[in-house]
Amino acid sequence: MEAQNPRSRIGGNWTAQLLATRRGAILVAALAALLAGVLLYVFVQHYKTSSTPVAAAPADTFVFEATRYIPAGTPASTIASEGLLKRTELPSKEAVAGAISDPSVIAGEVSATSLAADQQVTDTDFTRTNVTIGAYLTGAQRAIAVPLNPSQGLTSYLTEGNTVDVMFDSNGTTTMLAQDVSVLANSGGDVVLRVTDKQALEIASASDNTKVWLTLRPAIDSKDSVSVGSRGSA
Predict the structure, then answer these.
(1) pLDDT digits over 45-97, tens only?
(2) Residues 151, 208 contacting (CB under 8 angstroms)
(3) Which domains does the chain have, with CATH numbers?
(4) How many CB atoms lie within 10 A of CB 223?
(5) 122: number of Cβ within 10 Å
(6) Which of 11, 18, 68, 77 is 20 to 30 A away from residue 132, measured at CA?
(7) Kind and range of the H or E element at 30?
(8) Is the pTM of this model over 0.90?
(9) Which segments within the chain are labelled E, that is strand?
(10) Distance between CA 16 and CA 7 in Å, rounded?
């Protein structure tokens, strides 16, 4: 007689036998749950990877361009005061390498090369070097040194970059001679001012024949309540 399969004698195949017992059913359920968890984890990871957005490069960017021709050796302070840079928005792909987006990065520097009108300004276009007073002048601008005592000229306080008003006193009457004048240097009481050629004539004459006074203006948002030629007396 053919030997009967032991699994058949106890009620069918091995799986059926396993399910037939409480412990076997729990084991099968645990394995099924584990498999489901693994499949769910794989699905979630795949979803995160496929759905994570790729950061796109900005379509546009801001650069600074020269408003007109800027000669080599021009200080950044002159460029700022004369409004020789303009902020321009353009497609990122059109920005040249090293184009500046903040003019403060060239503060205290001078142009190392000449810049054409509408040319994008880069950090390599500027360098740190000793700047001569002449580099601060353009067109009809002139530099004039005015010898002043500490009380009249604020010589203990004025520094390069300050702006002042220039007045002169004659026979007890004080007259406003020039306003919003830049200080280029202050050395031993000789204050060097950047003025127009006409103002240079007037200040030279006033310095020789009258008493000249300087008043310091605010660094930001300065205003005038009087104009050039205004007079005051005691």
Answers:
(1) 776 666 555 555 568 899 999 999 998 888 888 888 888 999 999 999 999 99
(2) no
(3) 12-44 (no CATH), 60-127 (3.90.1210.10), 140-221 (no CATH)
(4) 6
(5) 17
(6) 68
(7) helix 22-51
(8) no
(9) 60-66, 85-91, 110-111, 126-127, 141-147, 163-170, 173-187, 190-196, 211-216, 231-233
(10) 9
